[in-house]
What does this fold into?
Amino acid sequence: MVRNSAGTSAAQVGCRALISMVLATSATAAVAAPVTDAMIANDQNTPNDVLTVGMGYSGQRFSSSTKINSDNIDDLVPAWSFSFGGEKQRGQETQALVNDGKIFVTGSYSRIWALDQKTGQKIWSYEHRLPEGIVPCCDVVNRGAALYDNLVIFGTLDAKLVALNADTGKVVWTETIDDFKGGYSYTAAPLIVKGKLITGVSGGEFGVVGRVEARDAKTGKMVWSRPTVEGHMGYLNGKENGISGKLNATWPGDLWKTGGAATWLGCTYGADTNELYCGTGNPSPWNAFTRPGDNLYSTSTVAINADTGKIEWSYQGTPNDHWDFDGVNEFITFDMKKDGKTVKAGAKADRNGFFYVLNRENGKLLGASPFVTKQTWASGVDLKTGRPIETNNRPGDPGKGEKGSSVFAAPSFLGGKNWMPMAYSGQTGLFYVPANEWGMDIWNEPITYKKGAAYLGAGFTIKPLYEDYIGALRAMDPATGKIVWEYKNPAPLWGGVMTTAGNLVFTGTPEGFLKAFDAKTGKELWKFQTGSGVVGQPTTWEMDGEQYVGVASGWGGAVPLWGGEVAKKVKDISQGGSFWVFKLHKSGKAAVAQK
Amino acid sequence: MTAMGSLRIAVFVLGQAGLASAALALERPAEPPADPLKSPAWGTIYGRYFKDQKVVFDDRVKVIAPANAENPLDVPVQVSADGLDGVEEMVVVADLNPIQKIVSYEPLRALPSLAFRFKVEQSTPIRAAARTHDGVWHLGGVWLSAAGGGCTTPSYASGDAVWQTRLNEVSGRLWPSADAKTQRLRLRLIHPMDTGLANGIPAFYIDRILLSDAKGEALARVHSYEPISENPVFSFDLKGSGPVRVSGGDIQGNKFSAEIKP
It folds into this structure.
């Protein structure tokens, strides 16, 4: 029997034309509305969907929704929860994407699920088959996916990109970023810019070469590649496109060949400048005596032309980094009002403890103020030269010996702020920075490169600075560099921050809470215990006239693996793996009446 | 003469009645034809794969399998529909496997015959169904005894890292028939073929293989499913001679291609 797409038999179509037309319409609606460049560019202004990491190109993580606000947040209750299942309960650092009735959530061990937006029911799942011997430095996390056309695209721990059909979860294309046996992996959420899939690489502890790449999002075909280590060749459409920087200008000998500067958090994008702003990690190895010089473009923000893959400017926070002040942190673009003028700016809270404000059109430094209480390595930043004023806090040269002299340094190598993204509210004009207060003993050891092996040349142990707290959520005024309010948390903060026009700031804690704060005053207004540590990135969307908040729960990340004394403090946190969705409570009668 | 005449009329009337009952059958859910293998799952299998289609049991469709599965992870089976003209598709199912469909085969320019190895979970009928161009499914099958567990046991690959360096490796050999009109291809692929039913190991299997000739024209197409054995082995009887190109991929987008030379 011939059947049409709506499942009516052909014989019935004639006498039931109207019904079959209605059915055909709903059948069309069931196929995902393709995500376009225009939709992505406008993501921040469309409350019904979340199409990009960072909730928009700027990475501000700001929502204009006000249905949930500082007056009614007492009524925020769970709507549903989805368990990731399996025995693979590790850190869940993802940000959900929401489109066309589906929520896309990634999980530990390179897994992704499509969930029904209304019910939380699983529509499909994809579990990537990982080989033995993957080497993610800092837990088997994933930080989210990208949407384009009818594809949902994410990266895997064995350094592959996988594009799935958003409706079925079937693989449409897959590409290898690089050889996982050489230390490469991938954990960031990709970004879509003008039909191109923008990705970086992870593996800075293994002597990889950092780079940013742009692929055709529909096919996976490479468009351009831009290394973030001086001396390496870039490519555009398969042709050489000039080396990054100048060979041996800031790197000695052949150390640049395994120079690190991993772009492991990806980039934000300025539509007005057509520039990608990509943070770069530590130079390899950690032992800086092996690589005298500034070691460009490590520990920097690099502005790359989105069409050509050429570097337009860069700003380096920690020249010749010696503390693993991996400057990969997100560069959030915003318009700064200062002295009656509006400046096209961008801000970054660096691992090294400085909150930098740059002119995003030329990379000029506008401000650098500490967002942590203690910085032993530098007393400030020279606003003229842009360079830190160092305090002779580098660990000693091991020479040919076994171990150089140790120093105490703050922040620790896990940073004043690590990967977890801050948020910016244009309404309050404040940045909300998830900071941590810790220091470390660090010393150098001799090191030689071996493919696929850790390439550090340093020993270290982390120490909390204070008895009563490590984590501190801080509201920073970018114009003055002043801290406006702070919330102190016993365990280190490791989750993303979100802010809304409802005068709210959301973030999670390792103690298991999703918390909401008054955006102006920092007063804690609401919390919910999710059952495991929250290191995910909260997001929000509207559906059928109601606002929802979603966050992944599941303790893990770098702290339990690298945290020294701190790891001991967090060892009793339960593992987990689930996605929680919240909405405002309605009494049963009111909910029925509305239907 | 009169007797003959009335007999003709009777036949005609029966024919009418036959049409009427066929029309009635469309209104009601179709009853599956009686299963010569007396499988407890026949109703389910029929509903899932053959509902509203014409099904006949046909001795020309043969399934050759051992009476007892010596190794439930690797049961050799050959299916053929020799003597049936115009076979467009062959489907092989194991009624009592947790995943019933093993393989579907389009012998575009090949004989309607295929050999492979599969994983069996418990004693089960194995059926081959050959669809001819008139849309009729011709079914044959046998019972296979098995101690079981083949579908829920972790693959060897899941305990051994070697597979990842050899994933989707293709090897094969061609044997021309005596009259040189056909050639037999035996193909071996390296793949864990995980069913997703073993605890903590996601499904991961080759789901498509295309055979084509030196000019790139398709010879045969295989759609394979979870029950196909780890490191799959297939045998085909292809029309013509000369090198055969093999291409395909798995459900995670890993691809393979190779050329098998005579």
The helical segments of chain B are 2-27, 42-50, 163-166. Residues 53-260 of chain B form a domain with the Immunoglobulin-like fold (CATH 2.60.40.2470). DSSP finds three helices and 16 strands in chain B. Chain B has one domain: 53-260.
